[in-house]
Amino acid sequence: MMPVMCVSAVLLCSMVADISARGLTATSTVDQPTLSARQYQHTDPNSGTRLACDKCPAGTYVSTHCSPSSVRECTPCPAGTFTRGENGVQQCHRCRAPCPVGFTEKVPCTTTQDRVCACPPNSFSSGGVDGGCKPHSLCPPGTRVKKRGTQTEDVLCRPCTKGTFSNVKSRTTKCRNHTDCQALGLVLLKPGTKETDNVCGSPSTIPPLFSPSSSFGPQHAALKQEPVSSTLTSLIYGAAHKGENRNDK
C-alpha cells in the first residue's frame, strides 16, 4: 500500500510544478508593455517592472530612465555629438572628424546630424575620405559621356556610334550627328569619322571629268590628232636620213 501512495504523491507534485510553471510564463507575457513608435522599453532596477518610457527628442539623450512614479529625463547632446531622431539611447553619437585636406564640409556637425565631407565639384572619391579626391576624367574626341561622374564614381566614356562624332574633350558632351550634306543642298566632299564631321561643299566645287588634253598633256593630244599620213612621212624621212649618215662614214 505504501509504494502506491508514494507514486501518487510524486505524480501530484509533478502536476503542481507544471501548472505553476505555466502560470509564471503567462504572467511574464502579460508584463510585456505595449510600445508605440515614440517609446522604448526599460526594466526598473528596483521593482523589476518592465516600463514603456517616452523617447527623447533629436539632439538629446536619456539621462534618467522613467520609473513607476516618474518620467524619463533628457539632456542636450554635448558639442561634437548628435542624435538624429527620437531615441532611448543613454549617450549621443560622436560626429565624424573634421574633413581632411582636399574635401569640403557639405553638412556640418550639429546636435541633430553628423558631419558629411564631400569632394569639390568635378571630382570624386571611391574610397571615402581615406581615398582622397580625384578629378573626373575627360572623355577624349571620338567618345561620348555615357554616365556623368558623381561624388563616388568617375565619368564613364563610350565610343561614338556610327554616324556620330565628338571633336572635343568633355565631362558632359555627347556625340553629335554628322551633318547631312544632301539635306542642305550640298554634296559630300569628305566623309566624317568618330572625331570629325562630314565636309560638305557646293556642286561647283567638284572638279570636271578628265579630258584627253588634261590626261596626256598638250603634246600627246597634238600627236593623237595628227593625221596618219604626216606620221608616216616623218618615219620615212627619218629612215632615209639615217641611211645618208651611214654612207658618209
Automatic annotation (TrEMBL):
UniProt GO cellular component terms: plasma membrane
Protein keywords: Disulfide bond, Receptor, Signal
BP-aspect Gene Ontology terms: adaptive immune response; humoral immune response; negative regulation of B cell proliferation; negative regulation of myelination; negative regulation of T cell proliferation; neuron apoptotic process; oligodendrocyte apoptotic process
Stretch forming the signal peptide: 1-21
Classification via InterPro entries: TNFR/NGFR_Cys_rich_reg, TNFR_21
Disulfide bonds: C77-C92, C99-C117, C160-C175
TNFR-Cys repeat windows: 76-117, 159-200
Residue stretches making up the TNFR-Cys domain: 76-117, 159-200
Protein's recorded name: Tumor necrosis factor receptor superfamily member 21
Organism: Oryzias melastigma (Marine medaka)
UniProt lineage: Eukaryota, Metazoa, Chordata, Craniata, Vertebrata
